[in-house]
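Retro notes (design track)

What went well: tokenization of the new backbones is finally stable.
What didn't: we kept losing track of which sequence belonged to which structure.
Fix going forward: every design gets posted as structure first, then sequence, in one message. First example under the new rule, 284 residues:
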């Protein structure tokens, strides 16, 4: 899966010191607040693209970016993209999809109270394919999800609870329609040097997995797992921020793994092992 506020009180305050001679003089008009553009863009460079705790780049760097359009009514649309290599690593049969393209739209509004925005929408993950064919072990990874989120604000603490529900197979896993991903994200503004502390936990339930047995075959729903993240973000102002986090999962490495070719064989590695993720983001 991505405000400027200013106050001007000098003119109003100066009116408190006006003499009687100026009592009938019309007060100076306060300057109009600058209009906020409904379109924003973002670009990020990161040492490792993690999605729900699983590396999408085999622990290699990624470049990411997108844009959003938000109407004052609460409706919005957007697009976000990232370089990846997990599709070719997973299939190992000539299929290449070097880019993830996300398209989404929804409605976000403070329906409960100020600082408590509700968010509902649909999200399409699209992986442009070149070469090869998918097989029975991995279907086309294009995925469609519905989501509902409730944002919250309690003083310096902000965050959201969210649930994603898949209308299709998720990311190439056969018979996985109806998978669910609930998660909780919370941020604490320390008030020091623009630093906030970040925490996240989520559970990826993968639906429709058969009961199996054997060395490589695991019990029912063994693809399901929990992921979590703890870290910090430094806001430099002007839309520039730097984040660093420790990410981990309990994902079964027999299924959630990466492939890397050598001169002699293919080696696998857990795709959800613990690791550090550092990202630099600029919002325009």
């Amino acid at each position: 899966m991505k405000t400027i506020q200013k106050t001007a009180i000098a003119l109003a305050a100066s009116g408190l010191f006006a003499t009687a001679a100026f009592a009938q003089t019309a007060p100076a008009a306060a300057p109009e607040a600058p209009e906020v553009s409904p379109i924003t863009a973002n670009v990020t460079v990161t040492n490792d693209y993690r999605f729900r705790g699983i590396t999408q780049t085999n622990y290699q760097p990624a470049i990411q970016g997108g844009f959003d359009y938000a109407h004052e009514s609460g409706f919005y649309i957007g697009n976000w993209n990232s370089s990846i290599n997990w599709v070719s690593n997973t299939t190992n049969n000539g299929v290449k999809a070097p880019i993830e393209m996300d398209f989404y739209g929804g409605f976000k509004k403070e329906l409960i109270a100020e600082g408590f925005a509700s968010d509902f929408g649909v999200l399409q993950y699209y992986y442009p394919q070149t070469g090869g064919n998918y097989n029975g072990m991995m279907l086309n990874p294009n995925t469609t999800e519905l989501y509902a989120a409730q944002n919250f604000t309690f003083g310096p603490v902000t965050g959201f609870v969210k649930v994603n529900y898949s209308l299709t197979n998720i990311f190439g896993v056969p018979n996985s329609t109806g998978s669910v991903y609930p998660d909780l994200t919370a941020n604490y503004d320390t008030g020091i040097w623009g630093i906030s502390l970040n925490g996240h936990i989520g559970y990826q339930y993968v639906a429709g997995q058969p009961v199996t047995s054997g060395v490589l075959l695991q019990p029912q729903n063994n693809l399901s797992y929990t992921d979590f993240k703890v870290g910090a973000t430094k806001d430099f102002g002007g839309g520039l921020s730097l984040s660093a986090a420790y990410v981990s999962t309990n994902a079964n490495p027999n299924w959630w793994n990466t492939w890397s070719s050598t001169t002699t064989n293919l080696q696998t590695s857990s795709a959800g092992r613990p690791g550090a993720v550092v990202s630099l983001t600029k919002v325009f």
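Added context from the reviewer: Confidence is low (pLDDT under 50) at residues 1-27, 213-217, 261-265.
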